[in-house]
Amino acid sequence: MKTVAVAISGFGNVGRQIARMLLARRSRYRNLYGVDVRLVAVCNSRAGLRKGAGIEEVDFASLVPGSTGPAFLVEAKPDVLIEAGPSDFETGSPGLAYLRTLLAMGCDGVVVSKGALVHSGPPLRRLAAATGARLRISGATAAALPTIDVLETGLLGCRVLGLEGVLNATTNYLLNAMMERGIGFPEALREAQAGGFAESEPSRDIEGWDTACKLLILANFGLDLDLGMKDVSVSGIGGVTLDDIGRWREEGTVPRLVGRIEFREDGPKAEVALRTYPLDDPFAHIAGKAKALRIHTDCMGEILTMGGGPEPTATASAALKDFELLLATPR
């Protein structure tokens, strides 16, 4: 039976959940694809573990300090790298170094963190193509919500005329809380942080940068564009007031933080901004921390996906969907 060796860079909440679910699904992989999947290396920024015979969940508590970095994973000779580290779109670190090194070896990549894809998405695509490596990115584009899959395969033969998405769960939760209960932004944010629904430092969510990152990945990987953050107009929801809430409730409209791409005669326009929708629009009914993507096409009309799941399971599931697609289409 063929062995498929897997390494995980980034071993926080998401990376550990991916590892647990990967190990739990090994019998599925054997039965469906005839492969013996082994987790041969994991690491975070400070420590890691490498084990050719395969890491088990009991080993997660035995990471070795200093065992980390791209060279450490190279020694494990993985067939697939799952990159699940922290995300910094300004530098691409730390995931960019892992991806560059492992893709250059021909190792397939499953990417969860957004930073490297935003910073160096097109070069990483070219590197993978040059070495024959495959790059899958579902976990980086709104987690469990089908997004990149729809663009890559669901709309083959169509021309995408534009798309818009509610791609950040935190801002959707905050706007829903404000609208449903008539509370202000500061109160909604305090409650969300107390309940674990918002980060203690939420600026990248509320200022629109997380949405912009996901929008850029969809643009460059799903629509074959070559955009950078400088090409995206970005604004957030921090300026929403109680007067705004009252006016929208009176008008019968619902606010959403939306990432949008439009194709114009002078080229594509990418924007993240607050938009309002009437009650008969599906975007007015994106509940809680759910997300949504709407794609306008020339011959399939309007395609809408909506939903979400609890974290970190949702993102881990998206990553393992990508992994399973690699198993289903071996090189």
From TrEMBL:
Binding of L-homoserine, residues: 199
Residues in Aspartate/homoserine dehydrogenase NAD-binding domain copies: 10-136
Keywords: Amino-acid biosynthesis, Methionine biosynthesis, NADP, Oxidoreductase, Threonine biosynthesis
Domain Homoserine dehydrogenase catalytic: residue ranges: 146-322
Gene Ontology annotations of biological process type: methionine biosynthetic process; threonine biosynthetic process
Residues annotated as binding NADP(+): 10-15
Listed Pfam families: Homoserine_dh, NAD_binding_3
GO MF entries: homoserine dehydrogenase activity; NADP binding
The keyword Oxidoreductase belongs to this UniProt entry's keyword annotation: yes
Annotated positions binding NADPH: 114
Protein name: Homoserine dehydrogenase
Organism from which the protein derives: Novosphingobium malaysiense
